[in-house]
Specification:
Layout (H helix, E strand, L loop, with lengths): L2 E5 L5 H10 L3 E5 L3 H4 L6 E2 L3 H5 L4 E4 L4 H9 L4 H4 L5 E4 L5 H10 L3 E4 L2 E2 L1 H7 L2 E6 L2 H11 L3 E8 L3 H30 L3 H8 L7 H4 L23 H18 L4 H18 L7 H6 L4
Parallel strand pairs: 1-2, 1-4, 2-3, 4-5, 5-6, 8-9
Antiparallel strand pairs: 7-8
Helix pairs in contact: 1-7, 4-6, 9-12, 9-13, 12-13
The chain binds nicotinamide-adenine-dinucleotide.
The site of nicotinamide-adenine-dinucleotide has 26 residues, from helix 4, helix 7 and helix 12.
Pfam family, one: NAD_binding_11
Keywords: Branched-chain amino acid catabolism, NAD, Oxidoreductase
Pathway: Amino-acid degradation; L-valine degradation
Length: 292
Amino acid sequence: MARIGFVGLGNMGAPMARNLVKAGHDVAVFDLAPAAMAAVPGATPAASAAAAAADAAFVFTMLPAGTHVRDALLGAGGMAAASRPDAVLVDCSTIDVATARAVAAGCGRAFLDAPVSGGVMGAEAGTLTFMVGGPEDAFARAAPVLRQMGRTVVPCGAAGAGQAAKACNNMMLAATMLVTCEAFVLAEKLGLSHQALFDVASKSSGQSWSLTTYCPVPGPVPGSPANRDYAPGFAASLMLKDLGLALGAAQAAGVKLEVGAKALEIYERFVAEGGGGKDFSGVVGMVRGSGA
Ligand code: NAD
């Protein structure tokens, strides 16, 4: 069992840290919100992010965005300098590729970018997917710990590759969800039932995760957010954030993404109309013309 520092105990970080405590690790935690630290019973609350990092073999961050990660790890009194020289720093936040690479280059420690998919339910159940960028030896050391919080741990390549995988995956998810919503709305206008479209497309070439696992209309997939008035799930505001990261990375790389850009525009509108707190599949209401 290892000494682990964990910083950022929000919707995702708290259940992830709880799973590390459950696995028997000695976990020191820190969050700017003191109440968040109480959400991880059995962990030791630290006085600062740097104090949580000190003496730890693995230092995890699960923070909102790139600026928070850069400041927490590299800023004055930062966690990287406070950590052991042989520590592995693992950032599980979803952030931009450029910041992940800059932190990897500047932290002076082994650094992995390891964003996740699976949401709060996956974090609680310990079934997250980790997509990991960084050196192979650091990956080999951290992978057993990641498997205590997740079911699938994928090495993606060098620094930033985990964030690149996350951005590409979620852009595909946004696009398949939007076109699936459009197909259901077209079916409604053509007198084709939701169930009939589902029965055909789920067995045909229109098949996707957005259809078969996360169907945006109620009925065909009883567990999907459509059956609970689009309570998230995966909030549209987070999808918008991830699309922004994908489009930002594309711009920096000189790649034109016409479908991705359109998806970003549609989710911007959905969030502006008040849909940000809804599941991202709730965009079907806007596609139908009945509002966010
Ligand atoms: P959250 O807002 O619930 O939690 C973030 C936590 O970080 C808060 O408790 C906040 O107080 C803390 N924090 C912020 N700055 C800090 C600092 N400098 N030091 C210490 N604590 C600090 O966010 P979340 O939903 O847990 O998401 C975290 C990351 O995971 C984000 O990058 C998000 O995009 C990503 N993510 C979220 C989901 C999801 O379904 N919620 C799914 C996959 C990935």
